[in-house]
Amino acid sequence: MANLTTFDYTAAIAAVCNDICFRVPELRHIDMSRVAVGFSQTKNSEPFGIFASATPLRFENGEPFRQSRGRIWTIQRHFRPDGVEYLYILYFYVPRFIELPLSQKLDTIVHELYHVNPLFNGDLRRFSGRRFAHGSKKRYDQTVNRLVHYWLKQDPPNVLWDFLCYNYRDLVAKYGKLSGTRIPSPRIVPLASNQTAVYYNDGTRKGEHKAAF
Prior knowledge:
alpha/beta, 3-stranded mixed β-sheet, 5 helices
């Protein structure tokens, strides 16, 4: 009999992120209940290009507004069903991300989580110099690697993250179908025309929706 189940890949990644933020002291400032997790579709699974991204929903220093060219601008807002506002969106690019080996998947997840500002104010973590998002790439990558190894040493339950061991073909063989939450990219808009987006966990309202990979 055919396997007709559907595996929610973005919900599974969100659960891994939540566990990482709970177990790793340097990431405990992150409240995953205010971080939306979605996917973006890639044309192919070639291991080149972007695997994931962290999108802040505030400007520098967590400011909700910015004045430019004589106008006040804001970033489109995303909310949970209970009205609590999200401060970040994590996007995972599939199937490209799914085809990565386990170690690189974990590095990618922690890499994006480490972008979250230590004040959890909706802005990115900022480093001095022109490369404010990463600073020294070598030191950034070393920090990510250290945090991943720390998390693994805490012995998180295998059932939480073993799906990351599989590529797309193996996941389909195991679960039948893959789906996730597709979240439109927030735009910077004039304050007067700001269109708020309401994010429902079941993906059924105002832009965000569940979609098959």
